[in-house]
Amino acid sequence: MTAQNISRFWEWGRKIICVGRNYADHAKELKNAIPTEPILFLKPPSAYVREGSPILVPVYTSNLHHEVELGVVIGKGGTAIPQSAAMEHVAGYALCLDMTARDIQDECKSKGLPWTLAKAFNTSCPVSEFIPKESIPDPGNVKLWLKVNDRLRQSGCTSQMIFSIPYLISYISDFITLEAGDLILTGTPKGVSAVQEHDELQAGIEDVVTMSFRVDRPEQ
Ligand SMILES: CC(=O)CC(=O)C(=O)O
Ligand SMILES: [Mg+2]
User: Residue 187 CA: which ligand 1 atom is closest?
Assistant: First the structure.
């Protein structure tokens, strides 16, 4: 195997592990209980989409939501990683969107079914360029924002997370072995809302990165 460059982590074909309801203000806006333990779900590597390519609205949803999130890129794998060593496993970060077919998620929730079709479809994980670890000295205190067609929809700070990044790395690695190239989506702050075909999404981490994506329908 040729040497892989972590700054192109989306090409590694590794796991995307997502944390749900990690911000109390978002849990409340969807009338969900505040979790006492992290809620986890997965996206496949085929969910990645990079700037220059569109976010495609699945044909089966009429309520596709944006969720802006800080992504943590794992640089060194491990199992049962203690919180005290967790940050040694981080290579860097990425700004991410957890695109969610909210109507499908609501239906799955009411039937007690998994969220796969709501969360893991193609292009459900737009990502920014790789952000080296040194560029975000305190990942527990960074401001995230998202605009749709120039209107601010989400603005939050990772200091509002219920479970910290070291806690999440340690918790996840107790159940799922982390590997270099894995990405952890750390949850979204409040302000999630629907997007439509032709919308322009812009998102950023204050003073660090911005990215933009257009929303489209797949060709039939
Ligand atoms: C209710 C959700 O979709 C959970 C989620 O993904 C989040 O970021 O919170
Ligand atoms: Mg999310």
Answer: 8
